[in-house]
Design brief:
Layout lengths: L7 E6 L5 H10 L4 E5 L5 H5 L2 H18 L15 H25 L3 E4 L1 E6 L2 E5 L10 E10 L3 E3 L12 E2 L1 H4 L8 E5 L3 H12 L3 E5 L11 H14 L2 E3 L2 E8 L4 E7 L5 E6 L1 E4 L3 E3 L6 H4 L22 E3 L10 H16 L16 E3 L4 E6 L2 H6 L4 E7 L4 H5 L6 E7 L5 E8 L2 H13 L4 H6 L9 H10 L7
Helix pairs in contact: 1-9, 3-4, 3-6
């Protein structure tokens, strides 16, 4: 496909879950493909995000079970907890996964080019040393097409510098060798709540600061309230409607000044460390996108169409750097579309309105999983809705797992039965969401889900019961 003067048909910039998946799909479709990575194969998700955090969360879940051991008939008085071993286990998993991505690159004959990539023009990259790979070889790479998958990085408050010691971000939090005695977490999205869960389970005194009215502010209000209740019972202090005004590093800790936005009361809090978890900013500032003519929005994210194409016809962008929905699986889906579009293969574009229906997961305990509109959003949009809700408490499998909190909530269009939203909180709900995601995608209604036979005893029966509840007749309620 490439013209003779280009080295490649497609070069992917960034090897996270969007980038490496795009490269594999492009290679499968017969395109001569390379991938440029300035740090480690797998990107943030594999090395510093999704994978190591889930390993730490599983450790915390085991520890929580040990704390409740008497409920299961186990008693002991010599429990020793080594947080460093949990971190080592998570890093070992990362090492294996990174090798796995490297193997996939070789298997698919994808050239891996190490270093920082900068556009010279719409068909040329200059690759050289990066802050992570100082000895990267300087070279020029040309390609008929490019897929920009440069991701995003942690954002901090204006005037507050993340130093990696006292004021930390997720990359620091995932490799701490010791549990801080007192931790303040600024932001209560998925990252904030997951680390709050891990560190509070390991004994840290955790305080969560959230500027908006609820924790997990993108989730359904009832789901957020359920998680708030469980975390408060666990001893986590939560301040919602509270703005972080100032963060000051002292000799033996950090002082955080916060203001309650409802009564304007100002409070000073002390901690060993502060974790900034207030969102991400795109890695689009040092890539030379202006030289290639690529348009960014006012926040610095790359503008794309439903096929991931930027305003420059041969340059595509996927994942967090587009600002669509900063989740690994969304980046992967975008990568497949971009590669197929470049290859001229059949594909399924992702229009802007589709992102709201992508699955969203938070892996604290209880887990949270959702897609589509919250109940409030569906009403705001003027839908005539039916809502079905069913708790995990009566479910036999949940009882056996000692999982007593949570519920499944399905929001459907009253006229046609189309699923408009699904909101789950409770045991392993991130594993239950795909049934509802597929149902929404294939326009399967709650009435049909209710009639689909679900194995007993399983947690999935709660999906069936919630679907029955949409129609007004849950069985075990």
């Amino acid at each position: 496909m490439a013209e003779h003067n280009y080295q490649y048909d497609v070069v992917v910039v960034g090897s996270g879950p969007g980038g490496y998946v795009a490269a594999i799909r492009a290679a499968q479709l017969g395109l001569k493909t390379a991938i440029v990575e300035r740090e480690s194969l797998g990107g943030v998700c594999l090395n510093w995000g999704c994978i190591p955090t889930k390993a730490l969360i599983h450790n915390a879940e085991i520890l929580e079970t040990l704390h409740d051991a008497a409920d299961y008939g186990f008693t002991f008085d010599n429990l020793k907890v080594n947080f460093g071993a949990a971190v080592k286990r998570s890093r070992d998993i990362v090492g294996r996964q990174t090798k796995g991505v490297g193997f996939l690159m070789k298997k698919n004959k994808i050239d891996v080019i190490n270093g920082q990539a900068t556009f010279v023009d719409a068909h040329t990259l200059q690759v050289g040393p990066s802050e992570f790979i100082a000895d990267a070889k300087a070279q020029t790479v040309t390609s008929a097409n490019f897929i920009v998958a440069t991701g995003a990085r942690a954002r901090s408050l204006p005037g507050t510098q993340i130093d990696g010691k006292r004021i930390i971000q997720y990359r620091d939090a995932v490799v701490l060798s010791e549990v801080p005695q007192k931790l303040i977490v600024v932001g209560s999205g998925a990252i904030g709540m997951e680390f709050s869960y891990v560190y509070s389970t390991y004994g840290a005194d955790v305080t969560v600061i959230e500027m908006l009215d609820t924790i997990l502010p993108l989730e359904d209000a009832e789901v957020a309230a359920e998680v708030h209740k469980v975390f408060t019972k666990k001893g986590v202090k939560i301040h919602t409607s509270t703005r972080t005004e100032k963060v000051e590093i002292g000799e033996d800790g950090v002082t955080v000044t916060v203001k309650n936005l409802k009564d304007d009361k100002v409070t000073t809090l002390q901690a060993d460390k502060v974790l900034m978890a207030i969102g991400v900013q795109p890695n689009t500032d040092n890539v030379g996108l202006d030289k290639a003519g690529v348009t960014l929005d006012k926040r610095g994210f790359i503008d794309i169409d439903a096929n991931m194409r930027t305003n420059v016809p041969n340059i595509f962008a996927i994942g967090d750097c587009t600002g669509k929905l900063a989740l690994a699986h969304v980046a992967s889906a975008m990568g497949v579309v971009a590669a197929e579009t470049i290859a001229g293969a059949p594909t399924l574009p992702i229009p802007a309105e589709r992102y709201i229906f992508m699955p969203r997961c938070t892996y604290c305990e209880p887990q949270v999983a959702s897609l589509g509109y919250t109940e409030a959003q569906a009403k705001e949009k003027g839908f005539d809705i039916k809502v079905g809700k069913f708790p995990f408490m009566p479910n036999g499998k949940a009882q056996g797992l000692n999982a007593k909190v949570g519920f499944v909530k399905i929001i459907a269009d009253a006229k046609y039965g189309e699923i408009l939203g699904a909101h789950l909180v409770g045991p392993d709900v991130t594993e239950l969401l795909p049934e509802l995601s597929l149902a929404q995608f294939m326009e399967i209604t709650p009435a049909e889900i209710a009639r689909n036979v679900h194995a007993h005893p399983t947690l999935s029966e709660v999906l069936m019961e919630a679907a029955h509840a949409v129609e007004g007749h849950p069985i075990h309620m």
